[in-house]
Amino acid sequence: MLNNIGLPGLLLIAVVVLVLFGRGKISSLMGEVGKGITAFKKGVKDGSEEIENNLESARDVTPEATEKDKV
């Protein structure tokens, strides 16, 4: 169904959306989408940095083998 929508169809849809919502509402919506994307990227970056910090502070906690254990 959506395979038949060409450039004229997309332009018509864009004009209808612009008439229904107005330019101010659409621009504020796009601003909120941009803020959401920025916040998501920041969250992913902070999460990966936290994982890297946890890996650096990880240490081996296995007990040392004693002479008694080796037998």
Question: What is the topology?
Answer:
Layout (H helix, E strand, L loop, with lengths): L6 H15 L1 H35 L9 H4 L1
Family: Belongs to the TatA/E family.
Function: Part of the twin-arginine translocation (Tat) system that transports large folded proteins containing a characteristic twin-arginine motif in their signal peptide across membranes. TatA could form the protein-conducting channel of the Tat system.
Protein name: Sec-independent protein translocase protein TatA
Describe the structure.
With 71 residues, this protein is mainly alpha-helical. It has a domain at 22-54. The chain has helices at residues 7-21, 23-57, 67-70. The longest helix is centred in the middle third of the chain and has 35 residues, at 23-57. 0% of the residues are buried. The mean pLDDT is 83.
Brief summary of the model shown:
This protein has 71 residues and is mainly α. Helices cover 76% and strands 0% of the residues.
User: Main beta sheet: strand number and arrangement?
Assistant: none
**Percent of residues in helices:** over 70%
Shape field:
elongated
Distance separating the two termini: 74 Å
Instruction: Let me know the average pLDDT.
Output: 83
Helix count from the secondary structure assignment: 3
Low-confidence stretches: none
- Number of beta-strand segments: 0
- Helix/strand/pairing category: mainly alpha
Order of helices and strands: HHH
Tell me what portion of residues adopts beta-strand conformation: under 5%
Radius of gyration from the alpha-carbon trace, in angstroms: 28 Å
Pfam family, one: TatA_B_E
Biased composition (Basic and acidic residues): 57-71
Family: Belongs to the TatA/E family.
Membrane topology: Single-pass membrane protein
